[in-house]
């Protein structure tokens, strides 16, 4: 592997887009326009992840309500002498 293929690992806020890799080595930023598209893509990935988390919370709440509603109000005895 030549040094031209390496990712730039500068962690400071910078607009240098030379060999900048985002998330994967194959997701390479080569210009300011591709940096903006990548930032937009990361924001979409984050929003999608949070949407799925919220959806799963709502499903869990609905299932919990259904289980709670189906339980008898008085617990059944486990042992009958």
Oligomer: single chain
Structural Rg: 25 Å
Number of strands: 2
Mean pLDDT: 82
Helix content: 40-55%
Give the helices and strands as they follow along the chain.
EEH
What percentage of the residues does DSSP assign to strands (E)?
A: under 5%
Briefly say what this structure is.
The chain has 81 residues and is mainly α.
Topology summary:
Layout: E1 20-21, E2 28-29, H1 32-70
Task: For the structure shown, list the relevant keywords.
81 residues; mainly alpha; two-stranded antiparallel sheet; 5% strand; rod-shaped
Question: Your description of this structure?
Answer:
By secondary structure, the protein is mainly alpha-helical. 48% of the residues lie in helices and 5% in strands. It has 1 helix and 2 strands, in the order ββα. Strands 1-2 form a two-stranded antiparallel sheet. A hairpin with a 6-residue loop joins strand 1 (20-21) and strand 2. The longest helix is centred in the middle third of the chain and has 39 residues, at 32-70. It is rod-shaped. The mean pLDDT is 82.
């Amino acid at each position: 592997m030549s040094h031209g293929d390496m990712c730039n690992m500068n962690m400071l806020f910078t607009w240098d887009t030379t060999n900048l890799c985002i998330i994967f080595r194959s997701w390479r930023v080569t210009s300011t326009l591709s940096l903006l598209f990548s930032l937009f893509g990361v924001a979409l990935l984050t929003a999608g992840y949070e949407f799925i988390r919220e959806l799963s919370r709502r499903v869990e709440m609905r299932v919990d309500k259904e289980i709670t509603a189906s339980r008898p109000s008085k617990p059944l005895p486990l042992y009958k002498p």
